[in-house]
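pls design
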């Protein structure tokens, strides 16, 4: 009887079978209760709304009325929802609930894979854009640090020149001892300018440390965003593995290689930053010691050495101006990078929530495609596109 029903339905347009919800008795009882209480009742087979009971009463039925244009004819009988529900229960009782009534739909699986790939592509593009942007920011920060080191080397060279001239002036200090009282006021002014120079140097070191801290914070935030995106990619890969095991093996291998490359790159950057910081600390300590020696011997300087020290101080202050501008640029770039990473984390969280909701609420392939399509339409655009 079931085979004859299948042959008869082949002459009508092919419809997607509704999902089976519980047992036939439970669905019929729920529909009859809704009809008796006057609530909105739905068909126990196709879940379509049923018309209310007529005012004159009558025997309620939990299925849609017979419609020959909906499912077609089976001989002299009209195929109805009640007939289809009864035959489906016979099929389930005979072959079990997991036995399909048709062959595997490979085309539907390809459509699922295409939909999942369209969801993964924006995430992969966002990861690539973040990596490229972070690489550019790191290169700019390294270039700014090299410029600052060059300016510091020039200041050190000026200090060495001043120290050499001081040694020459010590020999002549014996002849200028009589004029030391007149030069006392000038020496006090020179000491004040030297203290101001030391304060400016300390302020520049503090600002440099703040810029380095901001760069490290941005780097850690970018790493966390990449880790979260990698976790989302792994969950999507697990879903893909349930549909095609051979493709999943390749995706897992590619993901593993990407993580190893990122870890190696992170370790290399960390080692380079630590080595550069050690060199900077050593050079800063050496510079501070030389400035202290120069300050201790400032009382033996004469008027000519005072003028030269003032000139070196003005050159050092002039060299600090570009460094301040570069530090402000690095701070603004780090803020933009943090905003982009926050938007990426928010978009990944929305995507992960939408996929979990689609997988938990979809009953069949048609419902899953509909949910994924709606999720893709409501997905925020790429921050770079906006």
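designed seq:
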């Amino acid at each position: 009887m079931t085979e004859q029903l299948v042959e008869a339905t082949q002459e009508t347009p092919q419809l997607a079978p509704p999902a089976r919800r519980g047992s036939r008795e439970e669905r019929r009882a729920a529909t009859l209760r809704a009809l008796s209480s006057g609530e909105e009742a739905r068909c126990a087979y196709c879940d379509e709304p049923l018309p209310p009971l007529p005012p004159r009463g009558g025997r309620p039925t939990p299925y849609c009325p017979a419609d020959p244009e909906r499912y077609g004819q089976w001989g002299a009988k009209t195929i109805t929802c009640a007939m289809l529900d009864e035959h489906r229960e016979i099929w389930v009782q005979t072959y079990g609930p997991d036995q399909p009534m048709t062959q595997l739909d490979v085309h539907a699986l390809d459509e699922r894979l295409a939909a999942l790939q369209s969801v993964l592509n924006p995430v992969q593009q966002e990861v690539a854009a973040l990596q490229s942007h972070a690489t550019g920011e790191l290169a700019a920060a390294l270039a700014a640090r090299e410029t600052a080191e060059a300016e510091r080397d020039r200041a050190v060279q000026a200090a060495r020149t001043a120290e050499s001239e001081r040694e020459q002036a010590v020999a002549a200090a014996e002849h200028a001892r009589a004029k030391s009282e007149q030069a006392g006021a000038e020496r006090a002014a020179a000491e004040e300018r030297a203290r101001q120079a030391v304060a400016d140097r300390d302020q520049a070191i503090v600002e440099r440390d703040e810029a380095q801290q901001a760069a490290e914070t941005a780097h850690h935030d970018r790493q966390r965003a990449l880790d979260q995106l990698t976790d989302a990619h792994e969950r999507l890969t697990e879903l893909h593995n349930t549909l095609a095991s051979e493709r999943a093996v390749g995706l897992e291998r590619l993901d593993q290689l990407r993580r190893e490359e990122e870890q190696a790159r992170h370790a290399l950057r960390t080692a380079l930053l630590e080595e550069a910081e050690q060199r900077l600390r050593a050079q800063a300590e050496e510079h501070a010691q030389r400035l202290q020696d120069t300050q201790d011997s400032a009382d033996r300087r004469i008027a000519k050495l005072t003028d030269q020290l003032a000139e070196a101080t003005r050159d050092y202050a002039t060299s600090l101006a570009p460094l301040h501008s570069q530090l402000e640029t690095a701070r603004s770039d780090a803020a933009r990078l943090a905003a982009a990473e926050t938007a990426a984390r928010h978009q990944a969280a929305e995507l992960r929530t939408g996929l979990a909701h689609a997988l938990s609420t979809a009953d069949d392939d048609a419902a899953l495609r509909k949910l994924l399509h709606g999720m893709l339409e409501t997905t925020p655009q790429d921050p770079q596109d906006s």
